[in-house]
Amino acid sequence: MALTEVYWDHHIPLPKLAPIQAKVTVALVALLCFINSYDGEFVFDDSEAIVNNKDLRPTAPLNNIWSNDFWGSNLSSNSSHKSYRPLTVLTFRLNYLVAGGLHPVGFHVLNIVLHAVISALMIDVFAILIGGLAYDEKGRILNHAPKTSLLAAVFFAAHPVHTESVAGIVGRADLLCALFFQLSFLTYCKAFNKGSDRDDRFSVQWVVVSLLLCAAAMLCKEQGITVLGVNAAFDVLLICNVNVYELSQRLLLRKNPLDVSEIFRMGLLTRLALMGLGGLLMLYARWRIMGTGPPAFTEVDNPASFAESVFLRIVNYNYYYSLNAWLLLCPWWLCFDWSMGCVPLIKSATDWRMVWLLLLWCILIGLISQALCSQDSQRRRTLTLGLVLLVVPFLPACNIFFRVGFVIAERVLYLSSAGYCLLLAYSLGHCFCRWSKHRRLLCVMVLALLCVYVVRCALRSHQWRSEQSLFSSALSVCPLNAKVHYNVGKNLADKGNTAAAVSYYREAVRLHPTYVHAMNNLGNILKEKNELIEAEQLLSKAVSIQPDFAAAWMNLGIVQNSLQKFEKAEKSYWNAIRFRRKYPDCYYNLGRLYADQNRHIDALNAWRNATVLKPDHSLAWNNMVILLDNTGNLGQAELIGREALRLLPNDHTIMFSLANVLGKLQKYKESEGFFLHALRINPNAASCHGNLAVLYHRWGKLELAKEHYELSLKLDPEAPGTRDNYNMLRRKLDQHKRSAP
Fold this sequence. Notes:
Radius of gyration: 34 Å
Oligomer: single chain
Mean pLDDT: 89
């Protein structure tokens, strides 16, 4: 363990702050960078992981978070993403409870605070990795590289690649994982603080606590298990002070027999065995939890993993690594999604992009050679541990052990960026040490870099505040990404701008001709615009590409029904139900088809199925009441209406339909009550005023009838039949006046 000052540290032009001051400074930098995202919306993946995730609701059993994945689907389901992050979901649930609902401010604030805490703790992590492990008499970490660790922590706090993890609420998984990762590492370091000068003593209890914190990190995000690799490297290189280069020379050249007695005496093998056993148990538990095996990803998610040859797969994986490295070096081109053509595959060795692979490996080999072969023990240790912190947390995302579901994901660089920041701070320290004549220029460059980082974080955080700005920002970064165009189109369509949405959906389909979701959404818009022929063609193509696409089958059925292709529509609806058995909206539309064909019993059965699957399906309940009313089954219509109102006591459309039925049954008083209740909920319903007027007309309350006829005509002068009924009432009132004595 190094117990002397790091020789380049005092050359760095930063003040030597007290530990608390340094942590507060770094935390403030982190807050400055990302504070403008605090009032952002739920964006992108937040919709599925938070807004539509029933596990966040207080009504959902708490046990669900332990049996469902990150997105709220059951882990045993074949459609599950298998992302098991119950502790992250638990924090979302706590946010929901504290805020009393889905209010994004609380979610964003906690993310920003977590990043500030993690950035502050990075000072201790960097201090140990750069300057060695030492404690004072009070058990506090001694920082032998206060300036280097502060500079590295400031770079980490302000790195723009973190924006997705901080400004995107779903990034909570990366933040919590990083926090427990740090705590696991720092706790592992605690195992060597025995208040004794003997280096061979360590605390098994602290090692076990470190393993438990590793498990907690893994329950926040799968990447958390990589802290075991960092702990092991730290133990070998810093605690046991093993010279890897010298060790490899002895083993390869068989010079001087290796003396392992010292390693045994220091308990290294015991600690490695504990960590190995703990890691295997975590992996086994994780595998059992996944149930049906790993998730199934498609070529769209990760095209390189589906490349024809092993050579092309390796080449493209390495190209992805170089792009990740570029994001760390120059985090200006950031995008919420890098799939679907954003990164075209390298298909031959003559592709000019092969240069980036060679450059990446030249740099890595240079760093590794310095880390292993340098005569300077401090440089050797810092470079090696920096590379470990850079590479090891990235391993789960590198496609070596298993296929991942993305091309590039900025969020997976959250932990790896700590290794990059350590190496950057080390490099700058050496520059200040060797080029003292250019100290002022170097200071300006470092300050400029930090300012660029802060400004880029602020700009990128602002883009993450809304889906419109987030999706639009990606158009210039990934213009070939079909998903970017799809999301811009979907956002526009959700805001009612369907005309603009059509062009983006068309571009998404052009860029990715088998993009079934874009076809489905485009078909829906064309259906609403009554462009039924093209809508049918698009939806038919979507289901031919993906035969189990239930939503597209249902939408195809709606279009075919509008085209009066009733047999084809019925088949499409049943295909949708075959692929999604619990599909209440499809049963509702099937009922409408049967009603159009006067197949009343089939229509009622379909709508009843819809209400069984979704008891609050207002349209299905209302249609049953109306159909029974129209076919003269007033008694059954009354029963269905009352049943519906027990489930939906404030649904004014069902009140309106039931009031009509009761009026025909001459239950005038009760009918009046439902009409008035419906009008209290929706006072501007012209049809409700008109039908209440008809009720009063029949009931003989002519003045009240006149009042509501007039209100109905005021709200809708063209209301069918109301004008005639009103004129009839006026003639009747005139007759009463003339006949009055």
